[in-house]
Design brief:
This protein has 152 residues and is mainly α. The protein is built from 8 helices and no strands.
């Protein structure tokens, strides 16, 4: 019952909640997603245009001054994309997939893409946390021996 209550309390079905849970371990300027982290996510081998609104190739071809705006646009697109994905999940579970009374269509391909997108988000958050966690522990004053002991 305690585990069920914890799961119900920590419902991680919004990008804001994910940021709240992860960003407490990140230094200022390294929080998720930001202009620095979004570039590595955008250029990742598993990145898709549906996530960021731009392809890796198109992003690489941009001049340096245009990349900053493109990063901001990519963050906004990424946020909107996951907002819609989480809302669709909510509608499926709580409204029998009828957000406005009409039944919504869904295909195997669409479900597969949603699963890919969630896996992408989880894996990038995990990678970012693993990279940032040693700095978090160092900032708290833990010695190198302690950081090594916990694998950071």
């Amino acid at each position: 019952m305690a585990a069920r209550e914890l799961i119900e309390q920590e419902n991680v079905l919004s990008l804001d909640k994910i940021k709240q849970l992860f960003n407490q371990f990140f230094r200022q300027g390294h929080k998720l997603p930001n202009e620095d982290s979004i570039e590595t996510w955008l250029l990742h081998r598993d990145s898709k245009m549906r996530l960021f609104g731009i392809t890796k190739t198109a992003y690489r071809a941009l001049p340096a001054q245009a990349k900053s705006k493109s990063k901001k646009d990519a963050i906004a697109h990424f946020t909107d994309h996951f907002g819609a994905l989480f809302q669709r999940r909510h509608d499926c579970i709580h409204n029998c997939d009828r957000p406005k009374v009409a039944l919504q269509t869904i295909s195997d391909a669409k479900v597969g893409k949603c699963v890919q997108d969630v896996c992408f988000l989880v894996e990038r958050c995990q990678e970012s946390l693993l990279a940032e966690f040693p700095e978090y522990l160092r900032g708290l004053g833990f010695s190198g021996v302690t950081r090594n002991r916990v694998g950071a």
